[in-house]
Write a structure and sequence with these properties.
- The structure is a single chain.
- The chain has helices spanning 12-22, 28-39, 45-57, 67-79, 88-98, 106-109, and strands at residues 110-112, 118-120.
- The protein is mostly helical.
- A two-stranded antiparallel ribbon has the order 1-2.
- Residues 21-76 form the HAT C-terminal dimerisation domain.
């Protein structure tokens, strides 16, 4: 059991490990509190970083991203390799293998609209 000042000199991490391993099942309410305390972030840095990443990803040009794609892009941005190490050729090959894609020609990109106006897609660059 826990008696005296033996645990007074422990850091919180040491105390938590002692209660959760050596005294498991004895102090059930204390175990719940320790488990909660261990997962509470000390700072909001990761949350702030997430919002910054989201704001970089979801611009006015990409405002229709669904949550799944936005989350994937954010995970790649935060956890993926640096851009210099990314193998773009391999990514393009994988992307092409996912489904058949229609090749664009000049005729599909620059079509004559009714009324004589030509239709050209805006460049995002």
């Amino acid at each position: 059991m826990v008696y005296g000042d033996h645990y007074a000199s422990f850091s919180f991490q040491e105390f938590a490990e002692a209660v959760l391993s050596k005294h498991s099942g004895v102090f059930t309410e204390m175990e719940k509190l320790i488990k909660i305390a261990l997962v509470i972030p000390i700072a909001s840095v990761s949350c702030e970083r997430g919002f910054s990443t989201q704001n970089r990803m979801k611009t006015r040009f990409r405002n229709s991203l669904n949550n799944t794609n936005l989350t994937s892009l954010m995970m790649i941005s935060e956890l993926g390799p640096p851009q210099e190490q990314f193998d773009f050729k391999r990514a393009i090959i994988k992307w092409k293998e996912m489904k058949q894609r229609r090749q664009k020609t000049e005729r599909t990109e620059d079509r004559a609209e009714p009324g004589g106006m030509s239709h050209q897609k805006e460049s995002l660059h």
